[in-house]
Amino acid sequence: MKAFFIERYGKSGGRIGELPDPVVGTNDVLVQIKATSVNLLDSKIRTGEFKQILPYKFPLILGNDLAGVVVRVGPGVRQFKAGDEVYARPPQNRIGTFAEFISVNQKSLALKPRNVSMEQAASLPLVALTAWQVLVECAHLKKGQKVLIHAGSGGVGSIAIQLAKHLGAFVATTTSTSNVEWVKALGADIVIDYKKQNFETVLDGYDVVLNSLNADTLKKSLQCLKPGGQLISISGPPTPEFGEAQGLSWAVKPILRLLSLGIRRASRKTGVKYSFVFMRSDGAQLSEITALVESGAIKPIIDKVYPFASTADALTYLEQGRSKGKVVITVA
């Protein structure tokens, strides 16, 4: 099959070539990929940023989102059959959606929403699951609570705003001048133009902050939260609890403790809980998201669509940080 893969870590690189077809295990589903999408996670994996946490082998096919059609299933699969239209974020140890085919454990798959295209479906899994696991699973966001979602025009932010509004929350977000009206249209109640305002001097009394930006933004976000609030970051630093959950080696855990020491101390001083969320694949949660997409509560947001031959260009465009919503690649 054709695939876009890397043979070593680096800031750039990767090529399209022929690799063996995927092996289909007992509980696996072989999917012909129709569309995939690009995430910052792909760039970070390519540079080796997560090599201590995710020790991949080369050649490594990149890609963490897929929408496609089931070709065949393993003998233990009962939920899916050949011909089903599905979408997924594959497990982190079995990524590889920049390819014509992928073998995915059935627990990671869900039926594609019927009211969207393959490209739209492919834009959703990673960012929608991230928003769900932060706002629903971790924060337990409730109607009437106040949430600050940083980078509202990004892939995660644009979906998180919609999900938070569906849950009945009051939503603030940060973005650049050119995107202010755009994120308001997504449902944001307050929009902070970071080129003109300092969010930490404008916002206060918030219950939850979803951070996807740098350490400076993370620390300033503490000023927006009320005592008992939750500061949840998807961009780090990872916590010792994360290391335990991932089953990381004894050598890595002290590093995580040191990396997150500053923000954990600062959070305790302000009476705030700090958490790090590294999203995971979950077909059951994705089925919940399917229902929200089909009801119109969540709408996929696509910035650009590239052909498979231009996968490297799609990665480069995403890394520029100017996309509104997701960057999608058509495969088949």
Automatic annotation (TrEMBL):
It comes from Pseudomonas lactis. The keyword Oxidoreductase applies. PROSITE patterns: QOR_ZETA_CRYSTAL. Keywords: Oxidoreductase. CDD domains: MDR_like_2. The lineage of its organism: Bacteria, Pseudomonadati, Pseudomonadota, Gammaproteobacteria, Pseudomonadales. Residues 13-329 form the Enoyl reductase (ER) domain. This is Zinc-binding dehydrogenase. Pfam families: ADH_N, ADH_zinc_N_2. It comes from the Bacteria. The keyword Oxidoreductase applies.
